[in-house]
Amino acid sequence: MDLTAGSPARSRAVTAMILSYFAVFAYATATNDPRAVTLTEFGFGIIAIAVGAMLYGQRSRSEPVLTLGAGSLVAGGLLNVVALLTDSSAADTLSSLLVFLGVGCYVYAVWRS
């Protein structure tokens, strides 16, 4: 299983989003700028959705755990955006759990292959 399989442009775009996220996260942490903190939270959700979509495109019928991981990442990303817009701590917590599940499923699928 290769995360870079598929469209090279899509892989580069997701990599650029992740690097940009960490740059804005570092800035938000150093300055405690509320706009930057909000941007990192929104970026986290968008990145989770993008990575989930990439994984969904790479899944096969013989790897249902990868499908579960992709779905969890997309759902977690969507809930992260909902939590940001509604200031819901329940949505924020569920979002974190789903993203952790998605990453865990991906790690498990890679480990098994």
* N-to-C SSE string, H for helix and E for strand: HHHH
The count of helical stretches stands at: 4
How would you describe the shape? globular
Let me know the number of strands.
Answer: 0
- Helix percentage range: over 70%
Q: What is the typical, i.e. mean, pLDDT?
A: 90
> Major sheet, described briefly?
none
Keywords: Membrane, Transmembrane, Transmembrane helix
Transmembrane segments: 12-30, 36-56, 65-85, 91-111
Give an account of the 3D structure.
Keywords: Membrane, Transmembrane, Transmembrane helix. The chain crosses the membrane at residues 12-30, 36-56, 65-85, 91-111. The protein has 113 residues and is mostly helical. It contains 4 helices and no strands. It has helices spanning 8-31, 34-58, 64-86, 89-112. Helix 3 (64-86) runs antiparallel to helix 4. The longest helix is centred in the middle third of the chain and has 25 residues, at 34-58.
List the main descriptive attributes of the protein structure presented here.
membrane; mainly alpha; 113 residues
Task: Briefly characterize the structure.
By secondary structure, this protein is mainly alpha-helical. The chain is built from 4 helices and no strands.
